[in-house]
Amino acid sequence: MRISTAGMNNQMIGQALRVQTSYTEALQRQSSGLKSASLSGLDGNAGAAAGLTADIARSEKLSGIADAAASELEIAYSAVDSITDQVNGMLTDIAAAISGSADATTLSTLQSSASDAFTDVVALLNTQYADTYVFSGGATATQPVDASLYDAADPTAYYQGSDSLRSVMLDGGASIAFGVTADADAFSDTLEALNLLVSTSPLDTATMQQAYDLLSGAVSDLGTMMERLSGQTDKLDAVVDAQTDFQLYAGEMLDSLTTVDVATASAEASQREVLLEASFATLSSLKSVSVLDYL
Fold first, then answer.
1. Of 118, 106, 115, 112, which is closest to residue 205 (Cα–Cα)?
2. Are 216 and 77 in contact (CB under 8 A)?
3. Considering only CA atoms, which of 96, 103, 145 is closest in space to residue 125?
4. Other C-beta atoms within 10 Å of 215: how many?
5. For the whole model, what pTM was predicted?
């Protein structure tokens, strides 16, 4: 009978190496909290994990766009609110001038106030959020109002922006248009009224009444505009909330496919360590075995 320990040694070495590899992988799972360092190590779950990762990335991009648009609308809303304050102030001044004794000093003061208001409204319509002009529609890099181009015969000649609003594209081809352009009637009527007050000389009651009527209509339109901007903001906030909920849900699903429980991973690593130590102990004992012991 032929007696050899070589085969037994090779078998035990191979087993020890496999245990060592298993132990190393267990340590990696314990330290990283991941089932595998790559998708290929997830076996049948690799495709699902890749799909969820892509879905989460798209959702984060959409929520980021919607959030930025909502922030821009808040800036626009604030600007329209400030314009409304300007209009209300001018209505008060015009009413006082019409009902009182409109002497030269009163009329001069009114015209000066109208000139300042015109400048302020133009500045507000040229409001920027980051590098975006919020009242330029799709032409976000273009300053919407050029006061030097104002023409009483063409009340919107000053507008340099786009005719179309911007929109946030949603899944399924739907979209949410948002914003308002600086050539809206509420703005053009305001500028027309202020220009009437500034450019008419001498300023008479008929002109003041005409300006008052324009501003009265504008203040009502500005209120409607603010309601519309608020509604658009609510829609965009709802998109952000929905996408955030999806990201949390999809993230939990992805975690279930890719991560391990730390306590379980630690216990597994300890078990692999015990097996590895046992394998090394067996190999060590085999080294002391000699064929001569069996002769």
1. 106
2. no
3. 145
4. 26
5. 0.75
